[in-house]
Design brief:
alpha+beta; hpI Integrase, Chain A; three-stranded antiparallel beta sheet; CB; Phage_int_M
């Protein structure tokens, strides 16, 4: 509790008094005088926040509060995000802070931890930020539950790409011709798979990899040339995890006529075409003997497509064979879609819906350089100002 009193007969007329009880129930009190009311009010608010917590809870370890924090997130965040939090806690944060009392962690401790993992592991600023978010999340929850007065993680300085001299990898945008070249290399690499069509499909629909894994047979309507994006699938230990889309809303993706025809032919030969809930794109079944020899195994039409295995065993070799940038990621096929649609004159509003962005602003922010009109072409159309003499107006400089 803190109170503010005023006595204008004194040089410092504003006095703040506050009191609190320690863990043994003993009451303590303090007072402090200020020249201005503003500074006195600021101090009163500060001590009020600092004293409104339970010292007993502050004695609990960071590990105990981490368990409470993750428990509080269940049902409020996606299973994939919660799994990511637990992974960072287990691998990095708990070995550092697990046994430390939560009220004994200060800003310097958090700063030194982040600096150390960045330098020793050469982590990117984005990865360091993920670790900070986990630490800060636990401490923020402890503040919310009155265990500590303030979150010590709020005062740290996070690394930046500019400060570390890092250059972010540039997105790769393929032309339609390069998409065809990549698909041809994929078909030549293994003509028994539908992966050549799948690569073309990804470049012209702009789906995220987890959305491609999440597609079922009944999500494709070739008659109406519409694709229904309803779910995502992510591979986890022991199987697959099905979740909603990134923005938790389903969407309809329009298909070009030629792609709808190709998909219709593909579905006509699909082994599980009569099972609506069967995965649209097949995965690979790798036996142990093949796994150790680096084999690719046969197609498994009952198993969803596995992005990581596909990227390593199929996509990377095809890039090399096609002479395309080997730094290209699967996500760059999504960027390629945005570029192709923009070049075809599709309005940004439709591109945004096709890609499943929350709004057009997000699309503009991600693809600013794609939608940036060539200013030079417009500048050539700008006329010079009229001259009263009929000649260009030129100022002679000495």
């Amino acid at each position: 509790m803190a109170t503010l009193t005023t006595d204008h007969s004194r040089p410092k007329p504003y006095e703040v008094r506050w009191s609190w009880y320690d863990a043994d129930g003993k009451r303590h009190s303090r007072k402090k005088r200020f020249v201005t009311k503003k500074s006195a009010e600021s101090h009163r608010r500060k001590v009020t926040v600092e004293r409104e917590h339970d010292p007993q809870q502050g004695k609990e370890s960071f590990r105990e509060w981490a368990a409470k924090f993750t428990k509080s997130k269940e049902g409020k965040v996606s299973a994939a995000y919660l799994r990511k939090i637990n992974g960072i806690l287990k691998s990095s944060v708990l070995p550092e802070f697990g046994s430390t009392r939560v009220d004994q962690i200060n800003t310097v401790d958090v700063q030194e931890y982040l600096d150390r993992i960045q330098s020793e592991r050469n982590l990117t600023p984005a990865t360091v930020r993920h670790h900070w978010l986990v630490v800060s999340g636990v401490l923020k929850y402890a503040v919310k539950r009155k265990a500590i007065p303030l979150n010590p993680a709020t005062g740290v300085e996070l690394p930046t790409d500019k400060a570390l001299g890092r250059i972010k990898p540039e997105a790769v945008f393929l032309t339609p011709g390069e998409v065809a070249k990549l698909a041809a290399a994929m078909a030549e690499q293994d003509p028994t798979t539908p992966y050549a069509l799948m690569v073309t499909f990804m470049a012209y629909t702009g789906l995220r990899a987890s959305e491609v894994s999440g597609l079922n047979i009944d999500d494709v309507d070739t008659m109406r040339r519409v694709l229904h994006v309803r779910r995502t699938r992510s591979k986890v230990r022991g199987g697959w995890e099905v979740s909603s889309t990134k923005n938790s809303t389903s969407r309809r993706v329009r298909l070009p006529e030629w792609l709808a025809l190709d998909l219709a032919a593909y579905l006509g030969a699909h082994p599980n075409r009569k099972e609506p809930s069967a995965p649209l794109w097949p995965g690979r079944k790798i036996h142990d003997a093949q796994r150790f020899k680096g084999g690719k195994g046969g197609l498994d039409w009952s198993r969803p497509w596995d992005r990581d295995a596909f990227y390593k065993r199929h996509f990377k070799p095809a890039l090399a064979a096609a002479g395309l940038p080997e730094r290209m990621r699967l996500h760059d096929l999504r960027h390629t879609c945005a570029s192709i649609l923009q070049s075809a004159g599709v309005p940004i509003e439709h591109i945004s819906k096709q890609l499943g962005h929350r709004n057009v602003v997000v699309t503009q922010a991600i693809y600013a350089h794609v939608f940036d009109t060539d200013t030079a072409n417009f500048m050539d159309t700008v006329a010079a100002p009229p001259s009263t003499t009929g000649k260009a107006s030129v100022t002679q400089l000495a």
